[in-house]
Amino acid sequence: MSSRERFGDDDREERTGIRGVWAAVVTDNVDPEKLGRVKVTYPWRDAEDESYWARLAVPMAGSERGTYFLPEVDDEVLVAFENGDIHYPYVLGALWNGKDKPPEDNASESNDVRLVRSRSGHELVFDDTDGKSRLELTTAGGHTLVLDDSDGASSITLATNGGHTVALDDTPGSEAVTVTDKTGANSVVLDAVTSTVEVSAGGTLRLSAPMMELSGDGNVTVRAGGVLTLKGGMVMIN
Q: Per the database record, which ranges form the Gp5/Type VI secretion system Vgr protein OB-fold domain (predicted)?
């Protein structure tokens, strides 16, 4: 179905002489009909002469689904026209240029990194470095989620910008789940290698519940470097 059939013809004079593709600059991305369209200006026309609303060609689109990456105002885009008619523009994609540089420069010349970065700096990175592949999600504020598939050292790490971390380590020989606060003094470690759980506190460790039971199939040791105090309505030993 053509754009004429889907959106109707506005009875403007049809122009069918514009062939090929053209660079243009986005001037408006607030579509009054909420159809995800934009307006642009063309290099061969006056800067004040905006296009008609241009539909976006995206990797996937359907009823309330698809990929949604609306160009920003002043972004450079590539435009083509339905049957060469300037009244029916399509945005085929966005362009980098001498002013707007890519977010990655392939400095390693290995083309290992793919990424998506938003205007405010939220970023999703796909790193295909041989033996060190990973996926990293970073917010503009500095919170991170890293899924590391490095050979022999796979792990998932969640970290806040303040320094709190949750680490799930699948490295052979050191499999563990570790929760650590920003000071590093307070932590919980679930060690899958030794089947132990270790809770550490830099200050006071408090455990409370309506009912509490402490038991061990083997030995149970209670040790205090200072005074050991046991209190209860009734204290029963053995």
A: 23-96
